[in-house]
Design brief:
By secondary structure, the protein is mostly helical. Helix content is 65%, strand content 0%.
Length: 161
């Protein structure tokens, strides 16, 4: 693999995260003769913008999984529509932010994202007096990334509300 960033930068509009990481690497490689320019901190700020996008995508995936688990395992009827609305809202954010690079990132980290979402779902089920349902949540993610992203797809309830 050649040293440094690739010659052709990722597209700003189609993969903002990859673009930020590339631009920061290029900036660090550039010769700067004017000591008034704070290259390292500017590069770090650019990288931070990209990490914020990445973190937002990861957060929304966790949010979808959390609500999928509640929809699938809760017998409660009242909160179902609100959970579906939360999933829809998270998918809207994902549609705005998800690039190929971030899709790969989420796919690679799906197991760890699931672990956190599972715990949040367990706490949410306890809130509705459904501790038993929370204890039965699967240890591994039962959802694919395509299902998480697919508009209007929701898991079938294991217990009818």
């Amino acid at each position: 693999m050649p040293d440094g960033p690739p010659q052709k930068p990722p597209d700003y509009d189609n993969d903002f995260y990859a673009w930020t990481q590339h631009q920061a690497a290029v900036l660090r490689e550039m010769a700067v003769s004017d000591n008034r320019f704070d290259r390292e901190n500017v590069a770090e700020e650019i990288e931070t913008l990209g990490r914020s996008e990445r973190d937002a995508v990861r957060s929304q995936v966790r949010r979808v999984i959390q609500h999928f688990l509640k929809l699938q395992h809760s017998p409660a009827d009242a909160p179902r529509l609100r959970w579906m609305c939360c999933v829809n809202d998270a998918r809207g954010t994902l549609g705005d932010k998800l690039s190929q690079t971030l899709r790969r990132d989420v796919q690679e980290r799906l197991a760890s994202l699931y672990e956190n979402a599972r715990y949040q779902a367990e706490l949410g089920l306890r809130e509705y007096g459904e501790a038993e349902a929370g204890e039965r949540l699967p240890p591994d993610c039962p959802f694919t990334l395509d299902q998480i992203l697919e508009a209007r797809w929701y898991p079938d309830p294991m217990v009818k509300p």
